[in-house]
Model the fold of this input.
Amino acid sequence: MVKNSISVSPLLFILLDCKSNDPLQLQIYYQIKNAVLAGRLKPGTRLPATRALAKQLGVSRNTVLAAFELLRSEDYIESSPGSVTQITNRLSEDLLLTQASFPYPPNQQDAAGKVSKLAQLFGANHHRNRHHTPGMRAFRPGLPELDEFPFKAWSRMVGRFWRQPPIELLSSGDAGGYLPLRQAIATYLGAVRDVRCQAEQVFITSGAQQAIDLVARATIDPGDHVWVENPGYAGLNSAFIAAGALVNHIGVDGEGISVREGVQKAAGAVLAAVTPSHQYPLGITMSLKRRLELLEWANAAGAWILEDDFDSEYRYRGKPLSALQGLDQSSRVIYVGTFSKVLFASLRLGYVVVPESLVDAIRKIRLAVDDYPSLALQPALSGFIAEGHFSSHIRKMRKLYAERQEMLIDALRREADGLLSVAASDAGMHLVSQIPSSAGLSDQAASQLARQAGLNAPAVSDYCTRITRPDGLLLGYAGLSEFEINRDVKKLAQALQHAQ
Done:
């Protein structure tokens, strides 16, 4: 059974909602039926083969066969010699004029007009709605430690620029952002991540999500195929679907995204989105062999690679890893970073480093969308980086987060033995804890029990379009004190024990 919230057929544009009470075969049946009644599928239109449609939707062939059987029983479709299935030619004009009803209850709409299906889809399925509940700190992934942030130094930076701001900061800005900040980012990335770029290739954005959206607008036309990791970051799907892409969810193994599976599903994809330094959510580091394989495919296919380097600063063991962009000899990699997880979430500043061939396209789109990013905090961040406060803070947090990861592992082994198993990770701000089969719980059920106990522990399956991994929970630790870790692990263990 499919595990994702959205699946898209390139021929029928079928949306499957796995949180709906309607079985998947009924959802397919209703949407094809409504497309016929609305006139979007004309009599005689051929439908995809059941195997092909099942593959595109990520469901079993039996699910599609059941939906087709319902449609056939009501004479909406027919099969011709050669097993070709098509919309029946016997539909009456009266039936075709019947108003189609959407299979899910529509939102109440006011006199201002309708709300798009895309907006309804995003409202129901956005990852932030599922995983970010106000007041729930433990065990939210990506939550940084705020008590240790150097607010005094930050305040000095803000005051320096805004007590008597230069006149140029009060007028229109550059589409790329504040130039000294872009220069500071380019210098930092070159020294720490082996990213090769000039300041002109850096665009400041309102977080990583806007960076991804700009990239999608610049590289994807409706109907283009893209690769995303499965499991993977849900925010990518939103940007790509909004751009009209056909999203192909590609499995992740111990070396990273499976290039072989990607080529089998969509060899001609125009973009592959990956998290090579610390795969989200599994924490896998993409091997050098797989990185070179991915770059070779992109070069041969003329495709882009979007490298989301969301928390690469926090590596605790082993040799520091270079960015995928640094290995790229063909200018195929687009590099995205954010300050939200490194500093604080409400800062809402990120960046994208684009190949020179994309600079003009990104600039034009930026000017059309919002002219230029807010200048309110860019000068302060520029000074914060240039004077060494940024690097100093990262070094301090790297040591602290490594200690907190050990605290979490110790607490889980002490309090949740037999309920959750966990292994140390070389990097990141969260761990993936596996639920043994002997516990008798799915990760969805365990996540719900945690929520009832006031804890935020997302299920691994929330990030999957199909079952590819054992049941598990994501447990963030970076923003939690030793007291909170011990207290909340005990609460989590008690919640899971009561379900047995």
